[in-house]
Each structure stands twice: as structure tokens, then as C-alpha cells.
From TrEMBL:
InterPro entries the record matches: AI-2E-like
Stretch list, region Disordered: 1-60, 413-478
Family: Belongs to the autoinducer-2 exporter (AI-2E) (TC 2.A.86) family.
Name of the molecule in the record: AI-2E family transporter
Subcellular location: Cell membrane
Membrane topology: Multi-pass membrane protein
Organism: Streptomyces chumphonensis
Entry's Gene Ontology BP terms: transmembrane transport
GO cellular component: plasma membrane
Basic and acidic residues composition-biased segments: 19-41
Length: 478
């Protein structure tokens, strides 16, 4: 073997040994890396929970429904429940409508007559004598008004019938001479169709007459019940209010005891103010149409007085009735003059009398008044229209007082410049019957705290303390 071959063979052996050395070094490095990785994994290892024994179930159907739809559905079925409860309450109210209307009428009459009882008590008359005198006088006045209206209608029936016939003939002639080109045959056909309709529906009209007889029975029954309610509230209103407070939970009794007198003040203020405004309307419109020579001016004035208890709507209806009577009896010129009288009186009433007389008593927006009267008339007819506005005014006063009372009980929730419980009172009770009003927050004993009011309402004092010389639940006279 030559030297070159030996040299090449030695170089090959050296190269193979170096390759083996590199492979061994790489294996050792990989082995170290794997060992280092195992140590790091052991140090940071987290025990995983064992696999479930049963396979996972599918998600609930409610969980895949969008959140907004779920909220809407939850609110929807709750609203349906509330609607069902409201429907049941409406059915109960409808079944007891005679009792509810009679009690409400008695309460309104009590609010009107109670100041007279308080004044008689202040003059030294006993509670029973004051109540009896006021009650009998009130019934006499109401009865005389009703008798006078009926008497005037019967007394002027023949004259009014003749004048109405003349007015209808004049209206017929005006229609024939109008630019609408209505012929006499067309007008006669209209009258014949009207008579035919009346003949076809005579059975319905007879049924309505029988229902009218039933209505008279209910009317007199309700009148008697309202009279008894008024009598007992005038005589023993304080104890009636104390008895009602016993049904209120103790946690809410203090607030309700404070809200009751303020609600009564609102109601009495509304009734008295409405009576004054109605009297001024009746006198103004009655004198105006009497000067114009419209027949039955006094009964029309009484109707204006009664319709004034239906806010906004009643004045329009009674005024329109006076204008119609003036038109069919005295002609178009007198009707236009009567319309001017009605509009003048109503403008004075709406812009001067009501803001000045009612003032803070009824803090209800005119839009709310219109909606309330409409809703009340749809639900309960004329009684609903009459009772809707005082009900809303009382609820507004009670809610405002209870909200301020809750803020006083929770100082953290009290507003920085918020009202207190005594600031939301719509009126100030007098220091004594007929005396000047006492400002809120003064040292007068009638302006007590709510807790003191509860103590007074709970009967702490003389057992024979008069209850008819102040509003039911209201503060005693000074």
C-alpha cells in the first residue's frame, strides 16, 4: 500500500470518528433538552379534572334565545297577568257601581257641607245638632233646586213646545232656501225615513223605557245611600278614618295617616272651588240669556250649574244647549248673541276664576284633565266624568306626599333641593273654622309632624272628641 492510500484511509477514519462524535453530541443535547422540558412541565403541571362519566348534554333552549326576546317575553306574560287582574277589578267595580257611585257622591257632598258643621261647632252647638242642621239644610236646598227645575219645565212645556215647533219650521225653511239646493221632496223623504226608523225600533225604545224605570229605582236607592254616607261622615268622620287606618300595615300607617288629611284638603278645596265657579257661570249665562228673552232662563242656568262639575266638557255642552234653545225659540240673531254671552262667561271662568279660586288645589295639566274626563265617561258615563278629575287630583296629592315622606325617611336618597312632606300639601288648613290660614312650618299645633299626626289619629285623647268638626282624618281645630 502506498503512502497516499494510507493517508486517505487515515483521513476517512478521522472523518467518521468526528461524525460519530457530532451525532453523539447532538443526541446528548437533545436528551438534555427533553429532560429540561420534562422538569419544566412537572413544575407547571395542572391537574385536569377527570373526564365526565356521562356525555355532555345539549344546551337548554332558553339559553340559545337572544336576551332581548327573553326580556320581552318575561315582561309580556307579566303584563298579561296585570291585565287579567285589572279586568277582574273592573268587573267587581261594575257589579258594585251603585255602591261606589253613591259613596263617592256622599263623599263629595260631605266635602261641601263639612265647613258648615265646623262653623256651627265653633259657635257652640253640639256635634249631633250641628250635623243634623247642616244635613237637613243641604237636603232641602238640593231638593228645592230639583223641584224648581222640574216645575219650570212643566210650567213652560206648552209655550216651549210651540216655540220649538216654530223654530223647526224656521229651520226647515232655512234649509230649503240654503245654497245646498235641498228640495222639499228630499226633506220630506228624510222626515218619513226618520219616522219609519222610529216605528221599526219601537220595541227597543220600549225596552229602553223599562230600563229607564229600573234606572229610577237605582237612582233613588243610590240617593238614599249617598245621604246616609254623607250623614255618617259629617257626624263621625274622624272615627271612620281611624277605623280605615287599622287595615294599613304598621310600616306604612304613618305615611298614610299623613297623606289622608292632605287628600281631604285637596278634595274639599276642589269641591268648594268648583261650586263657586259653577255658581258664577250659572248666574252669568242665566242673566245673559234672560236679558235676550230666551225662555226657561232659570232652568238653563241650573243645568249650566250642574254641568260645570264636569270639567271642560260640561261647560261646552251646557253652553251649546243654551244656544240651541235660543235658536229654536228666538231665531238666529238671538242664538248668536247667546253664543257670545256663553263664550264671554267661559273665557272669564277659564282665565280668571279657575286659576284664582282653585289655585293650588288641583295641580293637573289641562291635557290630563281632558284625557281623564274622556276615560271616566267611557268607563262610567256621567258619574265617571264627574269623579275623574277630583280622583286624579287626590291621587296626585297622595303620591307627591308619600314620595317626599319616603325621601325624609331615607336621608341618603333625599334630593339636595327637594321638597319635604309638608311642602307638597296643596292647601293650608285654617287655624280654626273660618280663621286665617296658618303657614306650613309654623308653630301652630295643626302643623304637626307625621308621627304626631299618627298619635292623634290613633285615638290618644278624649274618647268623646268631636269628629264632625274637621275633615275625616284631618287635624283638629285650634
Amino acid at each position: 500500500m502506498s503512502g497516499f492510500e494510507r493517508l486517505r484511509s487515515g483521513a476517512s477514519r478521522v472523518a467518521s470518528r468526528m461524525a460519530e462524535y457530532r451525532q453523539r453530541a447532538e443526541r446528548e443535547r437533545e436528551e438534555r433538552d427533553r429532560e429540561r422540558g420534562r422538569r419544566a412541565q412537572q413544575e407547571t403541571a395542572v391537574e385536569l379534572p377527570p373526564p365526565p362519566s356521562v356525555p355532555p348534554r345539549q344546551p337548554e333552549p332558553a339559553s340559545v334565545i337572544p336576551w332581548g326576546i327573553r326580556v320581552a317575553s318575561e315582561a309580556g306574560w307579566r303584563l298579561l297577568v296585570l291585565a287579567g287582574v285589572a279586568w277582574v277589578l273592573m268587573q267587581v267595580v261594575g257589579a258594585l257601581s251603585l255602591v261606589i257611585i253613591a259613596f263617592s257622591a256622599g263623599l263629595l257632598i260631605t266635602a261641601l257641607l263639612q265647613p258648615t258643621v265646623a262653623r256651627l261647632r265653633h259657635w257652640g252647638l253640639g256635634r249631633g245638632l250641628s250635623t243634623a242642621a247642616t244635613f237637613i239644610s243641604g237636603l232641602a236646598v238640593i231638593g228645592l233646586i230639583g223641584w224648581f227645575v222640574v216645575w219650570q219645565v212643566i210650567e213652560n212645556q206648552e209655550d216651549l213646545t210651540r216655540q220649538v215647533q216654530d223654530g223647526l219650521d224656521e229651520l226647515r225653511q232655512a234649509i230649503l232656501n240654503s245654497p245646498f239646493q235641498v228640495s222639499e221632496d228630499q226633506l220630506n223623504d228624510f222626515v218619513d225615513n226618520l219616522n219609519q226608523w222610529i216605528g221599526e225600533h219601537s220595541q227597543d225604545l220600549t225596552t229602553a223605557g223599562l230600563e229607564g224605570a229600573s234606572f229610577l229605582v237605582e237612582f233613588f236607592s243610590g240617593t238614599a245611600l249617598a245621604a246616609f254616607v254623607c250623614l255618617f261622615l259629617l257626624y263621625d268622620g274622624r272615627r271612620v278614618w281611624q277605623w280605615c287606618l287599622r287595615f294599613v300595615p304598621l310600616s306604612a300607617r304613618e305615611g298614610v295617616a299623613g297623606a289622608g288629611p292632605r287628600a281631604w284638603i285637596t278634595l274639599t278645596g276642589y269641591v268648594r272651588g268648583t261650586v263657586i265657579v259653577a255658581m258664577i257661570d250659572a248666574i252669568g249665562i242665566g242673566v245673559g240669556i234672560w236679558v235676550l228673552g230666551v225662555p226657561m232662563a232659570v232652568p238653563l242656568a241650573v243645568i249650566v250649574f250642574l254641568f260645570a262639575f264636569v270639567p271642560l266638557v260640561g261647560a261646552v255642552v251646557s253652553g251649546a244647549l243654551a244656544v240651541v234653545v235660543a235658536f229654536v225659540t228666538n231665531g238666529l240673531v238671538t242664538a248668536l248673541l247667546a253664543l257670545g254671552v256663553v263664550l264671554l262667561v267661559q273665557q272669564i271662568e277659564g282665565n280668571v276664576l279657575q286659576p284664582f279660586i282653585l289655585g293650588r288645589m288641583v295641580q293637573v295639566h289641562p291635557l290630563a284633565v281632558v284625557l281623564t274626563v274622556t276615560s271616566g265617561s267611557l268607563l262610567a258615563g256621567i258619574p265617571g266624568a264627574v269623579l275623574s278629575v277630583p280622583l286624579v287630583a287626590v291621587v296626585n296629592t297622595v303620591v307627591g306626599y308619600l314620595r317626599a315622606y319616603a325621601e325624609e325617611r331615607n336621608p341618603q336618597a333625599r334630593r339636595v333641593h327637594g321638597a319635604t312632606a309638608t311642602d307638597v300639601s296643596p292647601a293650608v288648613p285654617p287655624a280654626m273654622p273660618g280663621g286665617p290660614p296658618v303657614p306650613l312650618g309654623s308653630a301652630d299645633p295643626t302643623q304637626t309632624t307625621v308621627r304626631e299626626l299618627v298619635e292623634k289619629e290613633s285615638g290618644e285623647g278624649d274618647e268623646g272628641a268631636p269628629g264632625g268638626d274637621r275633615p275625616p282624618g284631618g287635624p283638629p281645630p285650634a
